């Protein structure tokens, strides 16, 4: 998946940089300790400052920080493309993504899918109580841009799909959104990543990716039906 690939690329690069900086600092500290120990009794250095060394140190740190900011912002832009220019570059499908309204509540989820077509009338809704293995399923089509609009009915929650590296907070009286695109069919567990009360641990759901034709058929079958207390798969 593109999202996971970008995440792992950024994580690997920034971890490598962090490890390199840590080793440099560790080596400098070890050198200073060994050098001072070998010269026990030496008088303090008469130099109050090391301007060249300090300048190089500051320039290197600023350079690393600037690189991390630009690199992370660029990766974030590739991971969550948005705006008219991005949409125009990817065609009509990206300009009009599949939209799913996600509502988190204590302690489960509700997923509402507007019906396909220009009218977008009616919704296919799935929900559950997240008890006794009854989990709701978020169904999305493969190969298409999907926009999740996430809010909360009560307290702060967080939608998280560990295997695909998707995560977004859900706030009451506010809507967050992000786009995803899954290139193969499959089913992955999702969780709430924000402690939200007694049954936070059971607040799971399924993310299921199906073919576009199967998705449209699924929406039509569930359009206008009352939300089922069971998981829809």
TrEMBL record:
<keyword id="KW-0249">Electron transport</keyword>
<dbReference type="InterPro" id="IPR008972">
    <property type="entry name" value="Cupredoxin"/>
</dbReference>
<feature type="domain" description="Cytochrome oxidase subunit II copper A binding">
    <location>
        <begin position="95"/>
        <end position="221"/>
    </location>
</feature>
<protein>
    <recommendedName>
        <fullName>cytochrome-c oxidase</fullName>
        <ecNumber>7.1.1.9</ecNumber>
    </recommendedName>
</protein>
<feature type="transmembrane region" description="Helical">
    <location>
        <begin position="55"/>
        <end position="73"/>
    </location>
</feature>
<dbReference type="Pfam" id="PF00116">
    <property type="entry name" value="COX2"/>
</dbReference>
<keyword id="KW-1278">Translocase</keyword>
<keyword id="KW-0472">Membrane</keyword>
<dbReference type="InterPro" id="IPR002429">
    <property type="entry name" value="CcO_II-like_C"/>
</dbReference>
<keyword id="KW-0479">Metal-binding</keyword>
<dbReference type="InterPro" id="IPR001505">
    <property type="entry name" value="Copper_CuA"/>
</dbReference>
<comment type="similarity">
    <text>Belongs to the cytochrome c oxidase subunit 2 family.</text>
</comment>
<keyword id="KW-0186">Copper</keyword>
<dbReference type="InterPro" id="IPR036257">
    <property type="entry name" value="Cyt_c_oxidase_su2_TM_sf"/>
</dbReference>
<feature type="transmembrane region" description="Helical">
    <location>
        <begin position="15"/>
        <end position="34"/>
    </location>
</feature>
<dbReference type="InterPro" id="IPR045187">
    <property type="entry name" value="CcO_II"/>
</dbReference>
<keyword id="KW-0813">Transport</keyword>
<keyword id="KW-0812">Transmembrane</keyword>
<comment type="function">
    <text>Subunits I and II form the functional core of the enzyme complex. Electrons originating in cytochrome c are transferred via heme a and Cu(A) to the binuclear center formed by heme a3 and Cu(B).</text>
</comment>
<keyword id="KW-1133">Transmembrane helix</keyword>
């Amino acid at each position: 998946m593109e999202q996971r690939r970008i995440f792992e690329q950024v994580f690997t690069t920034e971890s490598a940089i962090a490890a390199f900086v840590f080793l440099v600092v560790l080596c400098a500290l070890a050198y200073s300790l060994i050098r001072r120990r070998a010269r026990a009794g030496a008088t303090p250095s008469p130099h109050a400052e090391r301007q060249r060394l300090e300048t190089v140190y500051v320039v290197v740190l600023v350079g690393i920080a600037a690189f991390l900011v630009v690199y992370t912002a660029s990766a974030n832009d590739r991971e969550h493309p948005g705006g008219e220019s991005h949409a125009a570059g990817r065609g009509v499908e990206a300009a009009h993504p599949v939209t799913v309204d996600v509502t988190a509540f204590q302690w489960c989820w509700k997923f509402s899918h507007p019906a396909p077509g220009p009218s977008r009338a009616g919704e296919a809704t799935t929900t559950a109580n997240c008890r006794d293995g009854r989990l709701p399923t978020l169904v999305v089509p493969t190969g298409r841009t999907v926009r999740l609009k996430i809010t909360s009915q009560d307290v702060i929650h967080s939608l998280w799909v560990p295997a695909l590296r998707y995560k977004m907070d859900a706030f009451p009286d506010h809507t967050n959104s992000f786009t995803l695109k899954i290139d193969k069919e499959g089913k992955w567990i999702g969780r709430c990543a924000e402690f939200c009360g007694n049954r936070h641990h059971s607040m799971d759901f399924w993310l299921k990716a199906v073919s576009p034709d199967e998705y449209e058929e699924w929406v039509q079958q569930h359009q206008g039906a009352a939300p089922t207390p069971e998981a829809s798969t």
